[in-house]
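User: Run a structure prediction on this.
Assistant: Running it now.
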Amino acid sequence: GMENLVACPYKQPNALCRLICFPWAGGGTSTLAQWGRLFSSSIEVYSVRFPGRESRLKEPFAKDMASLVTEITTALLQELQEKPFAFFGHSFGSYISFAVALQLKEKYGLEPFHLFVSGAHAPNSEALLPIKSIPIHDTADEDILKYIAILGGTPSELLQSEDMKKHLIQTFREDLRVLQTFSFEKAERKTPLSCDITCFNGSEDKPYDLTAWPELTSGDTSCYKLPGGHFYLLEPSNEIFLIKHITRCIENAGL
């Protein structure tokens, strides 16, 4: 059910809208769920919990993008019909947020009024192709750990415990496998979304191909670079910028 799928430690029953957050590969709900205390009471923050972690530790990991997206849309459907909602996704979470938005639109005629994506390529970009060819099963644990360390964003104490380290590597591997099953072909002459899209990135992160985003919506698209690497959003000053910017976009949507 919904309680299992979503962390919402700061409930705002009278909120005008909800911000649904989708975490990164290997990540849990805690960081983005804490955003709930930074927004005003007019915005309620949900952080989506993927299977295989936290309170869903005993559940099998998602087997592919399609089943993960269907699980999320089904569990959230009732909530999303109640009041307007926006999505925020970082890295792996950006692709999931887009795929969920797409399914909601195609299947239920529902759409986020704003899609905030961070640290990711446009889903219709060829830059995604190399990710699909990473041989996940043949990649050594050490190499995955190195990659996680380069990205940053993982508390060092998690990497001290062997069990935690093992679980993190497995979770990251499984999330990457899900991402490899994601395919999106833009249909000719059909613009899938109509919401505004904002892309955020770290200035020191590798460059992302964002040029194809405008093809995916009839709304406006804009991009912002913030100081830092892949996990620029964990810096308090950037977090403040994101909260203020997202709030302003929501206020301007005139809900």
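Helices lie at 2-5, 30-33, 65-82, 92-108, 129-132, 141-151, 162-180, 236-252.
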